[in-house]
Specification:
- The complex is a heterodimer.
- By secondary structure, chain A is of the alpha+beta class.
- Chain A has helices at 3-6, 10-25; strands spanning 49-50, 58-59, 63-65.
- Chain A starts with a helix and ends in a 5-residue tail after the last strand.
- Chain B is α/β, with parallel strands linked by helices.
- Chain B has a domain at 38-236 and 247-271: TIM Barrel, CATH 3.20.20.70.
- Chain B has helices spanning 81-84, 99-108, 125-137, 152-159, 174-181, 186-197, 216-229, 255-267; strands spanning 4-6, 14-15, 26-29, 32-35, 43-48, 62-67, 95-96, 113-116, 141-146, 164-168, 201-208, 236-240, 273-275, 286-287, 294-299, 302-306.
- Chain B has an eight-stranded mixed beta sheet with strand order 5-6-8-9-10-11-12-13. In chain B, strands 14-15-16 form a three-stranded antiparallel beta sheet, with no helix packed on it.
- In chain B, helix 2 crosses helix 3 (125-137).
- The chains are: A alpha+beta, B alpha/beta.
- At the A-B interface, helix 2, strand 1, strand 2 and strand 3 of A face strand 1, strand 2, strand 3, strand 4 and strand 5 of B.
Chain lengths: 70, 325
């Protein structure tokens, strides 16, 4: 065992176990490239208010009037 | 009433008055195109950076991850289809956050970066650009997780405020893009080159789907293209497919297939090739390409060992390891 592998001390080992246990128990859903966003709870939600679903009217970029042929 | 042509992505949707583009959220109102989910995130989560996945960009940090409804692709296997294949008005949950509120929330959450992700942030262009500029000004990095189906001109402009991207290269086959994703390959390749030209730290993801894009010869061609056009130091993540949405008839990707894909990519010259979603595989971790020293050990999203020097070099041979450390 080389010096790099020894850096996983007892405390690190317990931390690893806790981390793995958290990973196993946390509802991360299907572990795809981007697991479902809400899996595992929404830590940031309290900082942002829910809003009505009406459309925003922000001017988009990168468009032009369409010119009809004929 | 005036129709408009959207020039954001290769679809070039011609949108009649009152209608939306293919992405569902860019709408023609009175001859003017409106970004109808600006300031309206539909998903918010604090994730580890490794989940993007980004392995060479601020490892171990937390990233404030947000998404809108809608998408300009229609992947049959989309695992976020409840978000991507809907318009904003269809979402059960919508938040209200102008760019300043968004950046403040990310800072309050102790995050190192913002990630625009889950669906495809291309369709959220204006909000991403405004938020990213503000985030950068306040010391936060910006991560763009995308399928890269975007025109070069808007992408170049957006790259001015982006620090990193994880971009899909779904297959090295235009037919796959047309059949499975509803897009085409060439604009994606051009976008990846654009990221490199603009200096955005780039990592790629290839989701390997049994029988559809797991051909090793194609994977080899893809890897050679990445080496030639993006560089041998470009990290490539092979990800495991799971049945989802409109592709529930196929089995999950065998671990052996991912390992074979990784070997092909390494043989083609790529130095940092990873396997996602296979716990305990050597492909989870980062090794020095010169002497094989374990640099960063991972188990899932958890870092189990970090051995890079403070200068981002191998502790054994002192070679610089590419990334943003």
């Amino acid at each position: 065992m080389n010096a790099n592998e020894r850096c996983l001390s007892r405390r690190g080992f317990l931390g690893l176990c806790a981390g793995l246990l958290g990973l196993i128990c946390s509802p991360i859903g299907t572990p795809g490239r981007q697991s479902r966003p809400a899996d595992g709870g929404d830590a940031a939600a309290p900082a942002l208010a829910a809003g009505p679903r009406e459309q925003a009217l922000h001017e988009a970029d990168f468009y032009r009037p369409h010119e009809l042929a004929g | 009433m005036t129709a408009v042509t959207c020039e954001l992505c290769p679809r070039a949707c011609v949108i009649p008055e009152g209608a939306a583009g293919d992405c569902r959220i860019r709408v023609n109102l009175g001859g003017r195109l409106r970004a109808t989910t600006y300031g309206r995130p539909s998903a918010i989560h604090v994730d580890p950076m490794e989940k993007k996945p980004l392995y060479h960009f601020y490892p171990g940090s937390q990233v404030f991850s947000i998404a809108t409804a809608g998408c300009n692709l229609h992947c049959l296997n989309c695992q976020n289809w409840q978000l991507s294949q809907r318009g904003g008005e269809e979402m059960e949950e919508v938040y209200r956050a102008d760019p300043a509120q968004l950046v403040a929330a990310a800072r309050d959450a102790g995050c190192r970066a913002l990630a625009y992700t889950y669906s495809d942030p291309i369709v959220w262009y204006e909000y991403v650009e405004d938020s990213a500029a503000l985030a950068r000004a306040q010391g936060l990095a910006n991560v763009f997780v995308t399928a890269a189906y975007i025109n070069r001109k808007p992408l170049r402009r957006l790259c001015r405020v982006l620090d990193a991207t994880n971009a899909d290269l779904k297959a090295f086959d235009d037919g796959f893009y047309r059949r499975v994703n509803g897009g085409t390959l060439k604009p994606v390749l051009e976008a990846l080159v654009t990221f490199r030209e603009e200096g955005v730290w780039t990592e790629l993801t290839n989701l390997v789907i049994p029988t559809l894009n797991d051909d090793l010869a194609m994977i080899r061609r893809m890897a050679r293209w990445i080496v030639a056009e993006l560089g041998a130091d470009t990290p490539l993540h092979f990800s495991r497919f799971h049945p989802e949405y409109r592709m529930r008839n196929l089995p999950p990707t065998p671990a052996a297939t991912l390992q074979q894909a990784r070997t092909e990519a390494q043989d083609a010259g790529l130095r940092y090739v990873y396997i996602g979603n296979v716990m305990g595989d050597a492909g989870n971790s980062t090794y020095c390409p010169r002497d094989g020293t374990l640099l960063i050990g991972r188990s899932g999203f958890v870092i189990t060992h970090y051995g890079l020097t403070a200068q981002g070099r191998c502790p054994t041979c002192n070679d610089p390891i590419p990334g943003v450390w």
